Amino acid sequence: MSKINNKQRLEIYHKRKQGETIANLSKQYQLNRANIEYLIRLLDRHGEQILRQGRNRYYSPELKQEIIDKVLIEHQSLISTSIEYGLSNSGILSNWIKAYKENCYRIVEKRKGRKPAMKKNAKSIDPKDKDAIIKQKDEEIVAYDISKSPNFEQTINMLDRAFEQYEDLEGLILHSDQGWQGIIKS
Asked: To bridge 162 with a disulfide, which of 31, 80, 121, 143 should be the other Cys (CB 3.0-4.6 Å)?
Protein backbone atom coordinates (compact mmCIF):
# COMPACT_ATOMS: atom_id res chain seq x y z
CA MET A 1 0.00 0.00 0.00
CA SER A 2 2.98 2.30 -0.04
CA LYS A 3 2.16 3.57 -3.51
CA ILE A 4 -0.88 5.49 -2.28
CA ASN A 5 -1.00 8.44 0.08
CA ASN A 6 -3.14 8.93 3.19
CA LYS A 7 -5.74 10.95 1.28
CA GLN A 8 -6.23 8.02 -1.10
CA ARG A 9 -6.38 5.59 1.82
CA LEU A 10 -9.21 7.63 3.33
CA GLU A 11 -10.99 7.76 -0.04
CA ILE A 12 -10.81 3.97 -0.27
CA TYR A 13 -12.13 3.63 3.28
CA HIS A 14 -15.06 6.00 2.76
CA LYS A 15 -15.99 4.50 -0.61
CA ARG A 16 -16.03 1.03 0.94
CA LYS A 17 -18.22 2.25 3.79
CA GLN A 18 -20.61 3.70 1.18
CA GLY A 19 -20.96 0.25 -0.36
CA GLU A 20 -18.37 0.09 -3.13
CA THR A 21 -16.98 -3.40 -3.54
CA ILE A 22 -13.42 -4.32 -2.70
CA ALA A 23 -12.99 -5.69 -6.24
CA ASN A 24 -13.89 -2.29 -7.75
CA LEU A 25 -11.61 -0.45 -5.32
CA SER A 26 -8.83 -2.89 -6.15
CA LYS A 27 -9.14 -2.15 -9.87
CA GLN A 28 -9.58 1.60 -9.37
CA TYR A 29 -6.52 2.04 -7.13
CA GLN A 30 -4.51 -0.90 -8.56
CA LEU A 31 -4.09 -2.48 -5.16
CA ASN A 32 -4.21 -6.04 -3.95
CA ARG A 33 -7.60 -6.96 -2.44
CA ALA A 34 -5.93 -8.21 0.76
CA ASN A 35 -4.27 -4.80 1.25
CA ILE A 36 -7.61 -3.04 0.91
CA GLU A 37 -9.27 -5.44 3.37
CA TYR A 38 -6.40 -4.85 5.80
CA LEU A 39 -6.74 -1.06 5.46
CA ILE A 40 -10.49 -1.23 6.13
CA ARG A 41 -10.00 -3.38 9.24
CA LEU A 42 -7.16 -1.16 10.49
CA LEU A 43 -9.25 2.01 10.15
CA ASP A 44 -12.31 0.33 11.69
CA ARG A 45 -10.21 -0.63 14.72
CA HIS A 46 -8.10 2.51 15.21
CA GLY A 47 -9.89 5.28 13.34
CA GLU A 48 -8.48 7.75 10.85
CA GLN A 49 -5.87 9.07 13.30
CA ILE A 50 -3.81 5.89 12.74
CA LEU A 51 -2.83 7.29 9.33
CA ARG A 52 -1.43 10.44 10.89
CA GLN A 53 1.18 8.67 13.01
CA GLY A 54 3.85 8.91 10.33
CA ARG A 55 5.82 6.35 8.39
CA ASN A 56 8.93 5.98 10.54
CA ARG A 57 7.47 4.83 13.82
CA TYR A 58 9.84 3.36 16.40
CA TYR A 59 8.98 0.03 18.02
CA SER A 60 11.03 -0.89 21.07
CA PRO A 61 12.54 -4.39 21.24
CA GLU A 62 10.21 -5.17 24.15
CA LEU A 63 7.14 -4.23 22.13
CA LYS A 64 8.39 -6.19 19.11
CA GLN A 65 8.91 -9.23 21.37
CA GLU A 66 5.38 -8.86 22.75
CA ILE A 67 3.90 -8.64 19.25
CA ILE A 68 5.93 -11.57 17.91
CA ASP A 69 4.97 -13.70 20.95
CA LYS A 70 1.27 -13.13 20.16
CA VAL A 71 1.81 -14.88 16.83
CA LEU A 72 4.41 -17.52 17.70
CA ILE A 73 3.38 -18.47 21.24
CA GLU A 74 -0.28 -17.50 21.57
CA HIS A 75 -1.00 -18.56 17.96
CA GLN A 76 -2.93 -15.42 17.05
CA SER A 77 -3.13 -14.68 13.36
CA LEU A 78 -0.50 -12.44 11.83
CA ILE A 79 -3.08 -10.07 10.34
CA SER A 80 -5.18 -9.79 13.51
CA THR A 81 -2.09 -9.08 15.58
CA SER A 82 -0.84 -6.48 13.08
CA ILE A 83 -4.20 -4.73 13.21
CA GLU A 84 -4.40 -4.95 17.01
CA TYR A 85 -1.07 -3.12 17.34
CA GLY A 86 -1.80 -0.65 14.54
CA LEU A 87 0.96 -1.72 12.16
CA SER A 88 0.53 -0.01 8.80
CA ASN A 89 0.63 -3.39 7.03
CA SER A 90 1.05 -7.03 7.96
CA GLY A 91 4.34 -7.23 6.04
CA ILE A 92 6.04 -5.40 8.90
CA LEU A 93 5.25 -8.21 11.33
CA SER A 94 6.16 -10.85 8.74
CA ASN A 95 9.59 -9.25 8.37
CA TRP A 96 10.07 -9.04 12.14
CA ILE A 97 9.24 -12.74 12.57
CA LYS A 98 11.55 -13.72 9.71
CA ALA A 99 14.44 -11.70 11.20
CA TYR A 100 13.63 -13.05 14.68
CA LYS A 101 13.95 -16.64 13.48
CA GLU A 102 17.07 -15.90 11.42
CA ASN A 103 18.73 -14.37 14.51
CA CYS A 104 18.19 -17.42 16.74
CA TYR A 105 14.96 -16.08 18.27
CA ARG A 106 16.42 -12.75 19.34
CA ILE A 107 15.24 -9.24 18.52
CA VAL A 108 17.98 -7.41 16.67
CA GLU A 109 17.53 -3.69 16.18
CA LYS A 110 18.77 -2.19 12.97
CA ARG A 111 21.17 0.63 13.61
CA LYS A 112 20.35 3.86 11.86
CA GLY A 113 22.96 6.13 10.38
CA ARG A 114 26.53 5.39 9.45
CA LYS A 115 28.31 2.28 10.57
CA PRO A 116 30.94 3.07 13.21
CA ALA A 117 34.54 3.29 12.06
CA MET A 118 36.82 0.39 12.93
CA LYS A 119 38.16 0.61 16.46
CA LYS A 120 41.85 1.48 16.77
CA ASN A 121 42.48 -1.22 19.34
CA ALA A 122 40.65 -3.94 17.42
CA LYS A 123 42.67 -7.13 17.11
CA SER A 124 43.58 -8.02 13.58
CA ILE A 125 43.86 -11.59 12.46
CA ASP A 126 45.36 -13.29 9.50
CA PRO A 127 42.98 -13.13 6.51
CA LYS A 128 43.64 -16.84 5.96
CA ASP A 129 42.04 -17.57 9.35
CA LYS A 130 39.17 -19.96 8.96
CA ASP A 131 37.78 -20.01 12.48
CA ALA A 132 37.18 -17.27 14.99
CA ILE A 133 35.02 -16.71 17.99
CA ILE A 134 33.35 -13.35 17.83
CA LYS A 135 31.76 -11.52 20.73
CA GLN A 136 28.41 -10.40 19.30
CA LYS A 137 27.89 -7.04 21.04
CA ASP A 138 30.89 -5.27 19.60
CA GLU A 139 32.05 -7.87 17.08
CA GLU A 140 35.33 -8.19 18.96
CA ILE A 141 37.34 -11.30 18.18
CA VAL A 142 37.64 -13.17 21.46
CA ALA A 143 39.76 -16.11 20.31
CA TYR A 144 40.87 -17.76 17.11
CA ASP A 145 42.91 -20.69 15.94
CA ILE A 146 44.71 -21.40 12.70
CA SER A 147 45.62 -24.86 11.52
CA LYS A 148 46.44 -26.61 8.28
CA SER A 149 43.35 -28.79 8.56
CA PRO A 150 40.20 -28.44 10.65
CA ASN A 151 39.84 -30.74 13.63
CA PHE A 152 37.94 -30.94 16.88
CA GLU A 153 41.01 -30.14 18.99
CA GLN A 154 41.26 -26.79 17.20
CA THR A 155 37.72 -25.91 18.29
CA ILE A 156 38.36 -26.96 21.90
CA ASN A 157 41.58 -24.88 22.08
CA MET A 158 39.76 -21.85 20.72
CA LEU A 159 36.92 -22.22 23.24
CA ASP A 160 39.38 -22.71 26.13
CA ARG A 161 41.15 -19.46 25.22
CA ALA A 162 37.85 -17.60 25.01
CA PHE A 163 36.71 -18.80 28.46
CA GLU A 164 40.09 -17.99 30.01
CA GLN A 165 39.79 -14.35 28.90
CA TYR A 166 36.13 -13.64 29.66
CA GLU A 167 33.72 -14.69 32.37
CA ASP A 168 30.56 -13.63 30.52
CA LEU A 169 30.35 -14.78 26.93
CA GLU A 170 26.60 -14.37 26.45
CA GLY A 171 25.74 -13.92 22.79
CA LEU A 172 28.94 -15.65 21.69
CA ILE A 173 29.11 -16.69 18.04
CA LEU A 174 31.34 -19.53 16.90
CA HIS A 175 32.28 -18.76 13.32
CA SER A 176 33.75 -21.37 11.06
CA ASP A 177 34.28 -21.22 7.34
CA GLN A 178 34.62 -25.00 7.44
CA GLY A 179 31.10 -25.69 8.73
CA TRP A 180 31.95 -29.11 10.17
CA GLN A 181 32.11 -28.15 13.88
CA GLY A 182 28.34 -27.87 14.14
CA ILE A 183 27.80 -31.49 13.17
CA ILE A 184 30.22 -33.20 15.57
CA LYS A 185 28.42 -35.67 17.82
CA SER A 186 29.30 -35.33 21.49
From this structure: 143
